[in-house]
Amino acid sequence: MNYISTRGQKGKVSFKDAVMMGLAEDGGLLLPESVPSVADKLDELAKLSYNELAYEIISLFAADIPETDLRTLIEKSYSSFTTPEVAPVVKKGGIYIQELFHGPTFAFKDVALQLLGNLFEYILKERSEKLNIIGATSGDTGSAAIYGVRGKDNINIFILHPKGRVSAVQEMQMTSVTDDNVFNLAIEGTFDDAQDIVKAAFGDIAYKKRYKLGAVNSINWARVLAQIVYYFYGYFQAKKQGAQKVRFVVPTGNFGNIFAGYFAKMMGLPLDKMILATNENNILSRFINNGDYSKKDVVQTYSPSMDIQIASNFERYLYFLCDRDSKALSEKMAELKTSGRISFSSDEMRNVHAEFATFSTSNELTEKTIKEFYDKTGYVLDPHTACGVSAALSMADADYICLSTAHPAKFPDVVEKATGLAPEKPEGIAKLENLDKKCITIENDLERVKDFVAKHV
After folding, report:
1. How far is 39 from 259, CA to CA, in rounded Å?
2. Coil, strand, or helix at residue 99?
3. Pick the catalytic residue: 109, 163, 199, 208?
4. Which stretch of 238-242, 303-307, 317-321 has the lowest confidence by average pLDDT?
5. Per-residue confidence (pLDDT) for residue 127, from 0 to 100
């Protein structure tokens, strides 16, 4: 399996090269050149453990990694999770909830970033190379990426987060990692500002090559690939518990999480519509509802990991929406850059509506959902998961699997306000307050960030 750019100007690359490249050199995102089908293997796949299933799916896309090595990488990546199921499914209040928060930073990003960190280390050792990771985070990606590569040989990591716009726990998780290869940068701006800086740094090809930049954001295909696995696993687990017409509800701001589900469906997973849940930063909901993909100001909400206006993985979906026409896709991305919006035809919107439905929440509804779901079931939702549960409760016309993207203890203020009780803290969170912290505040300026990276590699 080789990889191509959504914008069509880069030759084919191998899986290992795709992992190391992150963003394609023409500014596009990498995708496999074909979509393998497992439609005739679903009964067999349903019998597998999570790690075995991960091997069967990932090996279809990583032909240049020997079987023994890939199995070892997968086992190593998920040995840090608190349950061998990795992504278990529980049924509460008539809704299937897939818990994706059993990794070391208690967020769904661990599923992908524990694997990506080990892939980086494996490839760098093989090639006797070094890598400088630069990434942006709206909260969870940063800590998960840091925990994925902390202390690893031949890797430095620079994570940009919007100052004052992540939860206290998210900030402590990032800044309490004081390893010499970890650098936390608090940007005086929004997540979109931080993401723009990262993309611009990667777009400077000479700079990228000179300082050997690598990507951990979901622009890296390996991130999406690891997430595809839990859609298959979640579907199989829900079916075993009696689910019939399955729909996934996905709280998302960057489109990477739901794109993984879309790709799983293309591979043959028999899903009904995908439901995209957003908060007040609802550019993706506006797109699905009426084709309005236009920039607006970012609003701070109870679910900060979704406080995003420009979804970095949306381009991958647009590539398929444009029938894999790189020229048409490039024109849409150019339109976004010049006008702050993208236009869609009626035929394109019909295809969107065939694949997706959407639901937007407010802070008020998020808080209400956390309270009412707890009162009814005794189960505590984090505010991001509550956005998804709100969608499932409002639709109630299928068997909904809601992706639970973070542990409620990462957002204790919101949970306590809603339920009257502070969420129980796992040991990994409880110890954060007493740890030393390391963080640097930096201007919202591309050149300042590039200079900082250059001085610390």
Report:
1. 18
2. strand
3. 109
4. 303-307
5. 95
Class of domain 89-103+227-425: alpha beta
297-301, 343-347, 434-438: least confidently modelled range = 297-301
Mean pLDDT of 237-249: 96
State the residue for tokens 């909260």. Answer: 139
Q: Is 151 left (phi over 0), alpha (psi -120 to 50) or beta?
A: left
Q: What angle do CA 356, 392, 296 make, to 5 degrees?
A: 55
Ranges of each domain in the chain: 89-103+227-425
Q: What is the mean pLDDT of the chain?
A: 94
**DSSP-assigned beta bridge partners for residue 341:** 294
Mean pLDDT calculated for residue range 86-111: 96
Helix (H) or strand (E) holding 90: strand 89-92
- What is the token pair recorded at 165? 């716009």
State how beta strands 89-92 and 30-32 pair: unpaired
Q: Compute the C-alpha angle 217/309/198, nearest 5°.
A: 35
C-alpha–C-alpha distance, residues 18 and 24, integer Å: 8
DSSP class of 403: E
Look at residue 224 and tell me whether its pLDDT is greater than 80: yes
Rounded CA gap, 170 and 304, in Å?
Answer: 10
Predicted confidence band of residue 75 (pLDDT cuts 50, 70, 90): very high
The answer to whether the beta carbons of residues 330 and 7 sit under 8 Å apart is yes
The token pair that represents 299 in the structure block: 């609003």
- pLDDT score of 3 more than 90: yes
**Beta strand ranges found along 191-325 (DSSP E):** 213-214, 246-251, 274-278, 293-294
Report, in this order, helix, strand and coil percent for the chain, each rounded to 5: 50, 15, 35
Q: Is position 109 annotated as part of the catalytic site? A: yes
Q: What mean pLDDT comes out for the span 59-68?
A: 98
Residues 41-46: contacts with CB under 8 Å, at least 24 apart: 42/268, 42/269, 42/270, 45/232, 45/236, 46/236, 46/239, 46/240
**Average pLDDT value for residue range 36-44:** 98
pTM given for the model: 0.92
Distance, CA of 388 to CA of 252 (rounded, Å): 9
Measured CA to CA in angstroms, residue 2 lies from 9, 49, 75 at distances of: 15, 27, 24
Report whether 410 contacts 107 (CB < 8 A).
Answer: yes
Question: Bridge-partner residues for 4, per DSSP?
Answer: 31
What pLDDT is recorded for position 232?
Answer: 98
Instruction: Single out the residue of 117, 122, 112, 118 nearest to residue 133, CA to CA.
Output: 117
